[in-house]
Design brief:
By secondary structure, the chain is of the alpha+beta class. The chain is about 30% helix and about 25% strand. It has 2 domains: about 240 residues, FAD/NAD(P)-binding domain (3-Layer(bba) Sandwich), CATH 3.50.50; about 150 residues, no CATH class. Helix 4 crosses helix 13.
Length: about 400
């Protein structure tokens, strides 16, 4: 068998390795249109490579996917995050789980993952062809013809693992074969707030915030990071992933409601403030920070409520407590635009899962054609989920089951 894998990213490398492990006699060619291989692996997790997520159950794992969760549930029975862990560790890459469940190589260097993948490619005798751009796929007689740099090449089976495309037109060559394409829109992005003074607090993290988008059911909790352009951090990134289509339709112009302390009982919040006022009546309000809020954020909220930082707690009246409660639990910010999260471009959309047999990753429209990774309409929140989907779908596609 002569097999082509299109795409030199995580899914492409893992697909090629899987093919060779399941079919040792196959000739495997890894085709990459540029000369940049594993570029996302290199920059992921700030150059440390967030290999997967360390959650313990399949149910927790599928919760990390705004799109594709249901179909991935069965796929994870074949190859899940524990299998990923074993795969890399058994090949000499020691891994560790951080408190937020993200899994990294203990070296804290993505090069460990890159070296491991390259070693496997070399050991298994897989041929890498760089600057090999595939522009068309044609059905042959029990085979597939690829047009590569204007030349036709014949393969018995082909795995498409070329990553996501920011525009639908980038997937025209797959749509022409009958595949349904879900329009790609960005996922995993941060919120721009060009006119909001809160950006002066860049670098401040609220550890347990809840954010929702006004006028929708979108809601997300977790650490929130204030940046020089707006807001980021897990709470925002999760929200952007789950709301990718809705926020695209809103043209990234909406109000974000921030509950800085993730407490919904306003009377409880007011009571906490009253107790502090009684116990620390002579101390300045800026010196006793409730709910573990960062100093700069607390001072910012006090100014927003027109409360002097040098006002003693004992002089806080009912009106000012109510104002504080409102800003602590329902602070509103205007969002205008988005920024891609670092260089880790992730799309919601791609080849619809209706067009793929998820048991084998084979196309429902063309025999001997398979898919793996982000070219499919699967995407995860931040935390290693996108790589896990790549490893899982690539492993299954590489079995080349009919």
């Amino acid at each position: 068998m002569k097999i082509a894998v299109i795409g030199g990213g995580a899914a492409g490398f893992f697909s090629a390795i899987s093919v060779k492990e399941h079919h040792p006699d196959a000739q495997v060619f890894l085709l990459e249109k540029t000369n940049k291989l594993l570029s996302k692996v290199r920059i992921s997790g700030g150059g440390r490579c967030n290999v997967t997520n360390g959650c313990q159950t399949t149910r927790q794992l599928v919760d990390g996917y705004p799109r594709g969760a249901k179909k991935l549930k069965k796929a994870f029975k074949v190859f899940d995050n524990k299998d990923t862990w074993h795969w890399f560790e058994s090949r000499g890459v020691a891994l560790k789980v951080e408190p937020d469940n993200r899994v990294f190589p203990t070296s804290d260097n993505s090069q460990s993952i890159i070296d491991c993948l390259y070693q496997e490619i070399e050991k298994l005798g897989i041929t890498i062809k760089e600057k090999a751009g595939v522009t068309a796929i044609t059905e042959g007689v029990n085979n597939i013809i690829l047009t590569i740099n204007g030349e036709d090449e014949v393969y018995d089976k082909v795995i498409v693992a070329c990553g996501g495309s920011p525009k639908k037109s980038g997937l025209d060559w797959l749509e022409k074969l009958g595949h349904k394409i879900e329009n790609p829109v960005p996922s995993l992005f941060t919120f721009n707030m060009p006119k909001e003074p809160i950006i002066e607090l860049m670098g401040v993290v609220a550890q347990d915030a809840t954010v929702n988008v006004q006028g929708t059911k979108l809601k997300s909790s977790g650490p929130l990071l204030i940046t020089h352009w707006g807001m980021s951090g897990p709470a925002i990134l999760k929200l952007s992933a789950h709301g990718a289509r809705i926020l695209s339709d809103m043209e990234y112009a909406f109000n974000a409601q921030v509950n800085w302390i993730s407490t919904t009982n306003n009377e409880e919040v007011a009571e906490t403030l009253r107790v502090i006022a009684a116990e620390h009546s002579k101390k300045y309000i800026s010196n006793i920070k409730p709910f573990g809020l960062p100093t700069r954020l607390w001072d910012f909220l006090l100014k927003k409520c027109d409360i002097s930082l040098e006002k003693p707690w004992g002089e806080i009246g009912k009106k000012q407590i109510n104002k504080l409660v409102t800003h602590l639990t329902n602070d509103i910010y205007k969002v205008k635009g988005k920024t891609t999260f670092k260089e880790e471009f992730v799309t919601c959309g791609g080849v619809s899962l209706e067009s793929i047999d998820m048991k084998t990753m084979q196309s429902r429209h063309l025999a001997n054609l398979y898919f793996a990774g982000e070219v499919m309409d699967i995407d995860g929140i931040t935390g290693g989920y996108n790589f896990q989907a790549a490893w899982t779908t690539a492993f299954i596609a590489g079995k080349l089951e009919e």
